[in-house]
Structure prediction request, 720 residues.
Amino acid sequence: MSTDYINVKNSKVHQALYNFVNLEVLPNLKISGEEFWNSFIESANELSPENRKLLKKRDEIQKKLDDWYKLKNSKINLEEYKKFLHEIDYLVEEKEDFKIETSNVDDEIAKIAGPQLVVPIDNARYAINAANARWGSMYDALYGSDIIDEKNGCEKLKVYNPKRGEKVINEGREFLDQNFSLEDASWKNVKSFIKNKSDLKIILEDKKETHLINKRQFIGYTGNKENLDTIILKNNNLHIEIKTDAYHPIGKLDKANICDIISESAISTIMDLEDSVAAVDADDKVKCYRNWLGIMMGTLETKMQKNGKSFVRKLNPDKEYFDKEDNKKYLHGRSLLLIRNVGHLMTSSAIILDDGSEVPEGIMDAFITVLCAVHDFKLKKNSRKNSVYIVKPKMHGPEEVAFADKIFSRVENVLKLNPNTIKMGIMDEERRTTVNLKECIRNAKKRIVFINTGFLDRTGDEMHTSFEAGPMIFKGDMKKSSWLNSYEDWNVDIGLECGFSGKAQIGKGMWAMPDKMKDMLQQKIGHPKAGANCAWVPSPTAATLHVIHYHQVNVFDQQKKLVSRKKANIDNILTIPIADRPNWSSADIAKEIENNCQGILGYVVRWIDQGVGCSKVPDINNVGLMEDRATLRISSQHIANWLYHEVCTKEQVIEAMKKMAKVVDDQNSKDKNYVAISNNFDNSIAFKAACELVFEGKLQPSGYTEPILHKKRLEKKLSN
Prediction:
C-alpha cells in the first residue's frame, strides 16, 4: 500500500486516486484536472460538517431510545411510544400527497419489470458477466440447475446428456405455450417458421399452418425469410429469441431445429461499491472505480481460462435484427447499470480534508462515479437518456435523503450537468427511513427512480434500534413477524401512492441460495405478485430463470390492483420483535448461537484475509448462501442482543466461536488461499474481528459492521 499524497489546496489526495482521475478519467472530458480537483475538494470540505452533524443526530436519537426503553422495562404502550418517537424527531409529520417528478428515465427502470443483479464492482469478471446478463440461455439455465432433477438417466455428465436435454426442451416448449400461445396448437408440434409479409407463419408437423394468438408478440427476425435463424417475440415488454440451427448438436435433434431460447434476463444490474466489496483504502477504491470507468467507456475486459483455453471476455454489443416491416433495428445488448455508492457513515483515507479528517466516503463516491459515468453520455451504451443511476444505502430518515440530494446537486454543478441528471435509488433498509418513507421520497422527488426493501439490513437495524427493549426473537422467526410483513407491503403501498408505477422501480430483496433454483422458481413469483417491478438475484442463471415470473405476471397490471388496497399498518411496523417471556431450552439457544457464529466466521474470514466482500458461503448445513455485510450485521447484532439480556454468556459465545471455527476451516479446506483459524485463535485477525463484532456489537453505530471490518482488514493488509 502506497502512502504518498498530493496537496490540493489545503487538503491531501492519495497519489493512486489522483493519478487515476487525471490520467484515466479526465482525458476526453470537458473539465481540467485543476478545475475538477479544486471544485471537488472545496465541495467535500463544505459538505463534510453537515455529514458529521447527521451522524451525530443518529447517535443522539439512539441514546434517547435506549434511555426510554430502560425506563419502560419492556412494558411498551404503542400510542405512548409513537408520541415519544415524534417528540425526538424519529417520526416526522406526513405532509400532503404528491407524485414523483423524475424525468429522463430509461425504460429498463420505468417500463420493463424484471430481475435485477447485484455484483461487486471490484471483480471485473463478475461485473462483465453481469452487464452481459441482459440476455441468457434458458436451455443452459435449465440444464445446469436443479430444476431438472438427475433421476432416471437425467444426470449432469461431463458431456451432453440427450435425455436431460430432452427434459430441458420440453420445459422450454411449455414456457412458450404458457406465454406465447398458438392458435389451436402447441409449440411441441411446431416444425418450421416462415416470415410472410409482416406476419409469422408457423408450420406444424402435420403441415397445417398456425399463428400466435397475439400476433403483436412477433416483433422481428434474423436470417432468410424462408429459413429464419432467430424469431424475436415480446411479452410484458420482455423479449425472447428462439434460435434455430439444423447443424447445431441440439438443433439437429429438434423437430423444429430449435437449438435454444435466449431470454431477456437481467434487465438492470447494481454495480456495488458497498456491502459486497472490501474496499478499505485508496488502492482498493481505485480498483473499484477503474472497473466502473471501464464499463462506462465500454473497454473493460478480462482474460479467462476455460477447458484449458484462454480467451478475453468483453462487454456485449447491441443485438441487430429486422422488424416485421424488414427494417433494421437493435435491442440493447447489456443490462442497464446502476452504481451503489456507500452510505453516509464511513470515511476514506484516500483524501484528507483541510481539518485533518478523512473525506466522507459517500461524497467521494458521488463525485468519482458520476465523473466516470459521463463517458457514457456520448456512447449511450448504458443510459440512452444521459442519466446516471446511483443507489444510496443506509440512510436514516428524510434529512439524510435531502443531504444525498444536496451532494448530487453539487456534483451536477461541478461537472456542469443538467439538474437531476443523477438519479437516486433509496434503499429502504433502516427503520427511520421505513416509517418516514413518504417524506424520504418527497426529498428526492425530482430524481428518485428506485426504492427497495432489504430484509437483512432492516432486521439488523430493528435489533439495534430497540436493543434495550428486550431479547430479540429467534432469527428464523423474524420472517414471520408482523413488522416484517407490514414493512414489505408498506414499501409497495408508499411507492404506488407516490406515483412510482411506470416511472420508477419498486424492488424486493435477494434470493440468497444460488444452487436452489427449483425453490426459487416456486417461491420468487411472490415478488412480482407483490407489485415489485424488480427483485434481486444472485447470478445470471438466476436472472434467466426468475424472468419467467415476469412473463407470467404483468407487474404493472398487478400494481393497478394493489393501489386501491388498504394501506399497510404502521403500528405493525413499529411492533418490536422482542420475545414475550422467553422460555427457550438451553439446546435451542446453543443451536441459534452456533448458527450465528458459523455464519459470522464463514463470511469474516474471507473478508479479512482475502478481501472478498461477497461470496457463496456455506451455512451450518453446508447450503451455499450468497452473503455480504447485511448478513453479518443481523447475526452479530442478534448474539450481541442476547448477551446483553443474559440469554447466553460470553463464555458460551467464545466456546461456540471456537467450535464453529473448526467447521469453517473444514468447509474451506479446498481453498488454497484460505488461512485456517482454529489452530491460531490468538493470532488470527479474522477470528478477533468476528469476536469483536459480537462483543462490541451494542457500541457499533446503528449496528453496522464496517468500522470493525475496515480496521481489521487494514491491520491484515499491513501484516502481509
The chain has a mean pLDDT of 96. The chain has three domains: 5-132+268-452, 134-264, 586-719. The domain at 586-719 is CATH 1.20.1220.12 (Malate Synthase G; Chain: A; Domain 4). Residues 616 and 626 are 4 Å apart (CA to CA).
